[in-house]
Amino acid sequence: MKCVSFLLVFALLTSLLNSRCHGYHILVLGVFPFYSHLMMLSVISNELVSQGHNVTFVTVKTTRPHPNLNLIINKDVMTGQMNPEFLKNLGRADSRELTRMLWSLAKNGTDTLLATKELKSFIDAPLDDPKRPKFDAIISETYFLHEALSAGFAQKFSCPLINFQPLVSPPNVAYMIGDPHNPAYMTDYKMTFTSNMNFWQRLENTYFSVYSTLYQNLIYLPAMDKIMRTHFATVGASN
């Protein structure tokens, strides 16, 4: 009996010592030119490759090279839309107008981005082509202007979608991901209030929480869904 137990332990230890862990093939999407966000995605990408993973980073800004990092510089088609007049209006907009401006930028930008040569090469690439990469996971700012991009590529490669959230989750995002959100003390980042609100500020914050969630579900997301189905029709997103 002791001999059998010893052999079992020996076999287990041998299998553990001989086992190997393979790194993931990860697609990181950072195609909007918000450089504070891209810096964080760059840090994440470099940390992943340092841990042995293979990362394809599609971005508009270069980063530190690494043998495991496939850096694809996508054409920056967004900076032209964010002209000085747009940025000035963005700075003086109230919370509702800011929401509409950002989501309008996302809709126009996503439609333009998905038509670029770099992203179309991923969309149109046959999955049975051995020369094309297969991805085990995708990292993107799914709930900050990247909804159509993230959902489309996740379906294309049939892999998990990992959300990178650069901001405190606003109520409309909390609604989608199941996070608790109490507008009595949690303010939307587009508001100027702190967590120490009076009654009227709480009422206004609650109103905006409801407004942004309804606007997202009834207007914004259907528009992004239409964009996704248009560009990813060849991979089944039209179904």
The strand count comes to 5
| CATH fold label | Rossmann fold
Q: How are the strands of the biggest sheet laid out side by side?
A: 3-2-1-4-5
Figure out the total of helices: 8
Q: What gap, in angstroms, lies between the N and C termini?
A: 60 Å
Going by helix content, strand content and strand pairing, the class is alpha/beta
**In what range is the share of β-strand residues?**
5-15%
The average pLDDT is 82
Radius of gyration: 22 Å
Q: In the CATH classification, which architecture applies?
A: 3-Layer(aba) Sandwich
Q: What characteristic shape results from the CA principal axes? A: globular
H-E order: HEHEEHHHEHEHH
Integer count of domains = 1
Percent of residues in helices: 40-55%
Protein name: UDP-glucuronosyltransferase
Keywords: Glycosyltransferase, Signal, Transferase
Family: Belongs to the UDP-glycosyltransferase family.
GO molecular function: UDP-glycosyltransferase activity
Overview of the molecule:
One of its GO terms (molecular function) is UDP-glycosyltransferase activity. InterPro entries: UDP-glycosyltransferase. Belongs to the UDP-glycosyltransferase family. It comes from Cacopsylla melanoneura. Keywords: Glycosyltransferase, Signal, Transferase. The protein has 239 residues and is of the alpha/beta class. It has one domain: 3-Layer(aba) Sandwich (Rossmann fold). The protein is 50% helix and 10% strand. The chain is built from eight helices and five strands; from the N terminus they run H-E-H-E-E-H-H-H-E-H-E-H-H. Strands 3-2-1-4-5 form a five-stranded parallel β-sheet, with helices on both faces. Helix 4 runs parallel beside helix 8 and helix 6 packs across helix 8. The longest helix has 33 residues. 27% of the residues are buried. The model has no long low-confidence stretch (mean pLDDT 82).
